[in-house]
C-alpha cells in the first residue's frame, strides 16, 4: 500500500522553490528512514507537474563498476529532452558507450577515443556538456553516502562550475560519511551565484504521525493509536509505516478491528518495539516460497532480477514467481525500475538478513557466488562481497583485486579505491598483491580533487612496513610531488629525492622523480635543474616511456620560459592538445600553464592570457582541477595588472574558498590584496597581506612569489621611511634572485631593491645590481624586466643626470604601456615628472597630472594623494583646498577620500600616511564626515553607499 505525504510542508516548499531556481546545489541530510527520498520524490512530482524536468540516479552499496554510475543511470532518461544532434556539443559523443540506448541521438565519439573506455576527464566534460544542453533540469542523486569517489568527484566538479540551468539535489546520511567530511568533500565551497539550501530532516511530530495513521486507517486512527505509533517510531516515518502495514494486514485477516484493539495490539505486542519487529512479523507470515525469495533478496543486498533470485533461492521459475508475488503483496519486497526487486529500505534488508541462521546465510552466499560467476561480464564487486561474507579471505583477496582492476579498466576509480583500501587492511595479504594494491591506490589518490586528503591517504600507505622497496619508492615519489608541487611545501622535494634509490629497478619512475627535482630552484637547487633534466633523459633512453617523456618536455619548456628564451613560443605551439593518453594531456596542460604564468612575469600579458585560457580548457577536459584552478588564479592576476580592480577581491576570495587546500590560491590572493590595499591607502592591511605572502613564498619551490612579496613589503616600508627594515626584507629576495639567475622575472623586485640601496646610501650596491641585471638580460624575451631595468636606471641617474633619468623613466612608461599595465606606467610617469621638475616645470606638471589622473581612474587613492602632495611641494600649481567652505552638508572631496578609507577599516594614522596628511587633519575630516552622514565609524560603508558616495576612492 502507499502512504500519503505528511508534514515537511515548509521543507517541501523550500525544496520545490530551489529546484526551479537554477543554478543550485541542494543538500538533503537525514538518518536512515527519515523520509529523504519521499520528500525529494514529492518535490519532483510537483516540479514535473509544472512542466519541469527531473532526472534521478541512485547510489548502492554494492554497485558494479560503472564510471559515474548513479549519474549515468539518471542520464538514461534524457532521451525525450535531447535537442537535435547538431545542437549537442561534440564532446557528448564520449557518453555513447555508457548510454547505448541513446547512441543514435548523440554525436559520434570524439576522435582518438579508440575502442577502450573514454578517459575520465573526457567523460566529465561530456556529462557537463550534456546537462548544459537539456535546458532547465534537476539532477537528483540519492544516498550519496554510498557514492564512489569518482561519482562524488564528478558532482564536486559540477557543483564548483555549475551549468547555468542545472539544479543538483543530493541526499545522504551524515552519520555514514567519513568523520568530519562534508558530503562533497572538504574542497567544496558554494560558488558565487549558486543557490540552494541545506535541509536537515528530523523526526515527524506526534500530530504528523497521526496524520499518517489517518491516511492509512481512516476513522480507526484515534489519538490513542497515534500516540502509540509515535512512541514506537519516535517520529521515524519508516518505522511508523511498517507498524501501519502490520495493522492493515491484521484488519484484513480478521485481527483486531476497533481503534482500542488496534492500539492495544501495538502497545502490548509480545515482540520488541520498532522496525525490527514489524519486518520480522511480516516475514514470519510468508509462505515457504515467498520466504525463500525474501531470504535471497536479503543476502544479495541489491535489487536483483527474477532469474538471479530464483538461482539463489534454489527455486524453479514458477515457485519464484509465486513467492515473489506474495512478498510484493505483503510489502516485504518492492519493485524497482528495470524489473528488479529488493527491500524497500536498507534497514528492512538488514533485519531480514540478520534473522537468517548462519548455515542458511552461507548456503545463500555460495549460491550467489555461483550464479553471479556465470554472468557476463562477471559482477566482481558483488562476487567479492559474497566471498568475504563466507569468510574465505584468500579467495576474497583474489576476487577483490580483480574487481579493482576491472573498475580501473572501466574508468571507475571510486569503486576501485574502496576495494583497494579494504584490501590493504588485510593483515595476511601476499606481499606482491599488497604492493600492487598500494600502487594502484596511490595513483588514484594522486589524481584526486582534494590534495590534502590524497596526502593523508598516501602517508598512511607509506607507513606499511610490508611494502616492497620499489613500490615504496613510487608511493614516496607521488607523496613528494603532491606535497611540493600541489601543496606548495618544498619539504616534499626531500621525499622525492629519498625515493630515487628505491626506484632503481623502475627507471621510468626514477626519471619522473628527476623531473620533479628539477623544478626546485630554492636553496641553490636551481643550479642543478638542467642536470636533473639531462639525467632524466639519459634514464629514459634506457627505458622509454611516453608519459614521462611528455613530463620532461613540459619541464624543458618551463625552463626555457623561465629564462626568457624566445624559442619557447614556437615549441609551445607544437605541444599536443589532444590524444589518447590522459597523462600526456596533463603534461601539455601543465606546460601551457607554466608558460602562461611565467609570461606574466616576463611581461607578455596578452600571450599569457591566451596560454592560460588554453590551459584552463585543457585542464577541464583532462579533469585536472588543481591545474584549472591555477590557470583561473593567474587569469585573475592579469585582470589586476590590467587595472580591472572592481570586484577583484571578491572573485579571488570565492576562488580561494573553492580550492582551500591549494597553496597557490592563498599566495596569489595575499599578493593581490596587498598590492590593492597599498595603492588604496590601506597600509595596515597591505603590511599584513605582504607578510603573509612572504610566508607562502618561503615554502614554495619557485623564487618568484617570495621575490614579489618582498618587493611589496619593501616598497611599503620605504614609503614609511623604514629604510633599514626595507633592506632587511629585500636582501634575502635579492640573494634568491642572484642564486636562481631569475633576472627575466625580476620586474617587481629590481626597482624596489635599487631604491632601498640608494635610500640607505649604498650607491655602489645599487649600481652593481643594475649592472648585473643589464648584463643578464640581453637576448631574453622579457619586456617587463627591461621596463624594470629602465626604471632602476632612472633611479640611479636621478641625482647626477636628471635629464637622462627622465629619459629612462619615459622608456619604462612606454614599455609598461605596451605590456598593458596602467598602474606601472603611471608610476613611471610620476617618477619622470618628479625628476624633471628641476629643469622643465611645464613638462613635469603635465606628467604628474597625467599620473594622478591615471591613479584616480584606477582607484589608487594613496598614489593620487602622493601626486597631489608632490605638485604642491614642487610649486607646480595649486589645487583649491579640498576642505574649503561651501560644501554645506555634502562631503568635500577630501572628506570623501578620508571617509572611504575609514569605511574600509583603515586607522587614522594609516590614512594620514596614505594621503600625506597630518593625523590631526585626518581626525578633523573623519569627525566632519561622521557628523554630516549622521553615523558612527562602523556605519560609514552603508552610509556612503546610501548617499551615493563611492566607498573606494
Structure, described:
The protein is mainly α. 63% of the residues lie in helices and 4% in strands. It has 45 helices and 7 strands. It is globular. Mean pLDDT is 85; it is low at 268-273 and 878-885.
Quick overview of this protein structure:
The protein is mainly alpha-helical.
Topology:
Blueprint lengths: L8 H11 L4 E6 L6 H14 L4 E5 L10 H7 L44 H13 L4 E6 L6 H12 L5 E7 L25 E3 L5 H12 L5 H11 L3 H16 L6 H9 L7 H10 L3 H13 L5 H8 L3 H13 L3 E4 L3 E4 L2 H10 L2 H16 L6 H10 L3 H17 L3 H12 L6 H16 L4 H12 L6 H18 L5 H11 L4 H12 L10 H14 L3 H17 L5 H6 L8 H21 L2 H17 L3 H17 L6 H11 L4 H18 L2 H17 L4 H16 L3 H18 L8 H11 L3 H14 L6 H15 L4 H18 L2 H15 L4 H18 L2 H14 L18 H11 L4 H8 L3 H15 L6 H7 L7
Parallel strand pairs: 1-4, 1-5, 2-3, 3-4
Antiparallel strand pairs: 6-7
Helix pairs in contact: 1-2, 5-18, 6-7, 6-8, 7-8, 7-9, 8-10, 10-14, 11-12, 11-13, 11-14, 11-15, 12-13, 12-15, 15-16, 16-17, 17-18, 18-19, 19-20, 19-21, 20-21, 21-22, 21-23, 22-23, 23-24, 23-25, 24-25, 25-27, 27-28, 27-29, 28-29, 29-30, 29-31, 30-31, 31-32, 31-33, 32-33, 33-34, 33-35, 34-35, ...
Keywords:
single chain; 953 residues; mainly alpha; five-stranded parallel β-sheet; 45 helices; 7 strands; 63% helix; globular
Shape: globular
Tell me what portion of residues adopts beta-strand conformation.
under 5%
In percent, how helical is the residue content?
55-70%
| Structural class category | mainly alpha
Distance N to C terminus: 68 Å
Which sheet architecture does the biggest sheet show? 5 strands, parallel
**What is the number of helices?**
45
Task: Count every beta strand, where a strand is a DSSP E run of 2 or more residues.
Answer: 7
The residue-averaged pLDDT reads 85
Main sheet: strand order: 2-3-4-1-5
**Low-pLDDT residue intervals, each spanning 5 or more residues:** 268-273, 878-885
User: How many whole angstroms does the radius of gyration measure?
Assistant: 34 Å
Amino acid at each position: 500500500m502507499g502512504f500519503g505525504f505528511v508534514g515537511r510542508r515548509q521543507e517541501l516548499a523550500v525544496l520545490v522553490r530551489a529546484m526551479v531556481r537554477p543554478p543550485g546545489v541542494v543538500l538533503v541530510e537525514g538518518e536512515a528512514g527519515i523520509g529523504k527520498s519521499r520528500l525529494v520524490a514529492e518535490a519532483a512530482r510537483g516540479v514535473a507537474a509544472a512542466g519541469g524536468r527531473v532526472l534521478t540516479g541512485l547510489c548502492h552499496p554494492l554497485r558494479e563498476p560503472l564510471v559515474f554510475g548513479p549519474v549515468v543511470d539518471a542520464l538514461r532518461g534524457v532521451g525525450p529532452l535531447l535537442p537535435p544532434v547538431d545542437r549537442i556539443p561534440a564532446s557528448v559523443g564520449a557518453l555513447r558507450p555508457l548510454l547505448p540506448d541513446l547512441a543514435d541521438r548523440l554525436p559520434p565519439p570524439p576522435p582518438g577515443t579508440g575502442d577502450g573506455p573514454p578517459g575520465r576527464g573526457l567523460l566529465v566534460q561530456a556529462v557537463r556538456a550534456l546537462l548544459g544542453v537539456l535546458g532547465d533540469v534537476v539532477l537528483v542523486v540519492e544516498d550519496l553516502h554510498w557514492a564512489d569517489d569518482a561519482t562524488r568527484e564528478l558532482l564536486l566538479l559540477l557543483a564548483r562550475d555549475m551549468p547555468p540551468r542545472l539544479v543538483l539535489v543530493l541526499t545522504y546520511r551524515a552519520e555514514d560519511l567519513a568523520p568530519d567530511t562534508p558530503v562533497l568533500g572538504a574542497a567544496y565551497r558554494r560558488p558565487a551565484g549558486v543557490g540552494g539550501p541545506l535541509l536537515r530532516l528530523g523526526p515527524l511530530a506526534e500530530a504528523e504521525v497521526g496524520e499518517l495513521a489517518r491516511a492509512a486507517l481512516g476513522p480507526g486512527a484515534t489519538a490513542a493509536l497515534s500516540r502509540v505509533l509515535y512512541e514506537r517510531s519516535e517520529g521515524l516515518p519508516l518505522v511508523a509505516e511498517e507498524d501501519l502495514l502490520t495493522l492493515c494486514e491484521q484488519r484484513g485477516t480478521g485481527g483486531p478491528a476497533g481503534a482500542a484493539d488496534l492500539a492495544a495490539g501495538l502497545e502490548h505486542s509480545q515482540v520488541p518495539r520498532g522496525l525490527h519487529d514489524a519486518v520480522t512479523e511480516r516475514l514470519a507470515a510468508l509462505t515457504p516460497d515467498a520466504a525463500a525469495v525474501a531470504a535471497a533478496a536479503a543476502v544479495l543486498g541489491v535489487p536483483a532480477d527474477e532469474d538471479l533470485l530464483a538461482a539463489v533461492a534454489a527455486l524453479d521459475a514458477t515457485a519464484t514467481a509465486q513467492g515473489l508475488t506474495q512478498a510484493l503483496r505483503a510489502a516485504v519486497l518492492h519493485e524497482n525500475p528495470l524489473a528488479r526487486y529488493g527491500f524497500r529500505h536498507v534497514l528492512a534488508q538488514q533485519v531480514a538478513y540478520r534473522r537468517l541462521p548462519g548455515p542458511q546465510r552461507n548456503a545463500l552466499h555460495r549460491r550467489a557466488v555461483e550464479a553471479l560467476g556465470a554472468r557476463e561480464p562477471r559482477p566482481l564487486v558483488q562476487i567479492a562481497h559474497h566471498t568475504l561474507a563466507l569468510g574465505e579471505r584468500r579467495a576474497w583477496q583474489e576476487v577483490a583485486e580483480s574487481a579493482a582492476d576491472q573498475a580501473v579498466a572501466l574508468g571507475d576509480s571510486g569503486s576501485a579505491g574502496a576495494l583497494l583500501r579494504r584490501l590493504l587492511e588485510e593483515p595476511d595479504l601476499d606481499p606482491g598483491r599488497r604492493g600492487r594494491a598500494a600502487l594502484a591506490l596511490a595513483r588514484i589518490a594522486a589524481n584526486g580533487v582534494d590534495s590534502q586528503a590524497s596526502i593523508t591517504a598516501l602517508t598512511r600507505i607509506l607507513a606499511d612496513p610490508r611494502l616492497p622497496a620499489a613500490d615504496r619508492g613510487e608511493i614516496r615519489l607521488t607523496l613528494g610531488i603532491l606535497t611540493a608541487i600541489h601543496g606548495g611545501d618544498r619539504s616534499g622535494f626531500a621525499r622525492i629525492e629519498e625515493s630515487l634509490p628505491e626506484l632503481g629497478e623502475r627507471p621510468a619512475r626514477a626519471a619522473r622523480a628527476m623531473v620533479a627535482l628539477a623544478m626546485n630552484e630554492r636553496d641553490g637547487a636551481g643550479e642543478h635543474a638542467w642536470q636533473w633534466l639531462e639525467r632524466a633523459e639519459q634514464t629514459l633512453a634506457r627505458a622509454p616511456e611516453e608519459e614521462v617523456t611528455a613530463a620532461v618536455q613540459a619541464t624543458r619548456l618551463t625552463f626555457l620560459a623561465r629564462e626568457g628564451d624566445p624559442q619557447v613560443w614556437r615549441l609551445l605551439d607544437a605541444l599536443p592538445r589532444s590524444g589518447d593518453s590522459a597523462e600526456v594531456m596533463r603534461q601539455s596542460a601543465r606546460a601551457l600553464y607554466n608558460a602562461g604564468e611565467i609570461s606574466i612575469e616576463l611581461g607578455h600579458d596578452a600571450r599569457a592570457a591566451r596560454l592560460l585560457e588554453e590551459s584552463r580548457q585543457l585542464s577541464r577536459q583532462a579533469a585536472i582541477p588543481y591545474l584549472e584552478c591555477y590557470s583561473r588564479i593567474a587569469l585573475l592576476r592579469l585582470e589586476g595588472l590590467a587595472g580591472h580592480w572592481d570586484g577583484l577581491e571578491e572573485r579571488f576570495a570565492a576562488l580561494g574558498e573553492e580550492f582551500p587546500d591549494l597553496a597557490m590560491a592563498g599566495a596569489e590572493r595575499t599578493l593581490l590584496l596587498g598590492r590593492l590595499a597599498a595603492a588604496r591607502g590601506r597600509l595596515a592591511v597591505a603590511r599584513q597581506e605582504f607578510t603573509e605572502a612572504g610566508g607562502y613564498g618561503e615554502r614554495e619551490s619557485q623564487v618568484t612569489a617570495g621575490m614579489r612579496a618582498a618587493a611589496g613589503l619593501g616598497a611599503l616600508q620605504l614609503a614609511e621611511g623604514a629604510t633599514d627594515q626595507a633592506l632587511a626584507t629585500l636582501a634575502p629576495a635579492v640573494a634568491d634572485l642572484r642564486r636562481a639567475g631569475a633576472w627575466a622575472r625580476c620586474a617587481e623586485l629590481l626597482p624596489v631593491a635599487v631604491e632601498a640601496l640608494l635610500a640607505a646610501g649604498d650607491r655602489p650596491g645599487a649600481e652593481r645590481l643594475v649592472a648585473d641585471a643589464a648584463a643578464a638580460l640581453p637576448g631574453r624575451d622579457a619586456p617587463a624586466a627591461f621596463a624594470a631595468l629602465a626604471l632602476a636606471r632612472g633611479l640611479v641617474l636621478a641625482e647626477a643626470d636628471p635629464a637622462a633619468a627622465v629619459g629612462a623613466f619615459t622608456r619604462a612608461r612606454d614599455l609598461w604601456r605596451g605590456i598593458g599595465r596602467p598602474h606601472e606606467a603611471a608610476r613611471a610617469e610620476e617618477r619622470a615628472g618628479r625628476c624633471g621638475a628641476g629643469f622643465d616645470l611645464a613638462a613635469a606638471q603635465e606628467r604628474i597630472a597625467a599620473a594622478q589622473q591615471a591613479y584616480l581612474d584606477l582607484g589608487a587613492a594613496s598614489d593620487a594623494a602622493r601626486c597631489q602632495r608632490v605638485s604642491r611641494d614642487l610649486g607646480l600649481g595649486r589645487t583649491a583646498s579640498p576642505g574649503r567652505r561651501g560644501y554645506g552638508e555634502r562631503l568635500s572631496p577630501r572628506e570623501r577620500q578620508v571617509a572611504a578609507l575609514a569605511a574600509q577599516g583603515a586607522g587614522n594614522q594609516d590614512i594620514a600616511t596614505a594621503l600625506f596628511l597630518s593625523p590631526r587633519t585626518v581626525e578633523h575630516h573623519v569627525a566632519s564626515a561622521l557628523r554630516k552622514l549622521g553615523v558612527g565609524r562602523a556605519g560609514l560603508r552603508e552610509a556612503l553607499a546610501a548617499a551615493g558616495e563611492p566607498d573606494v576612492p
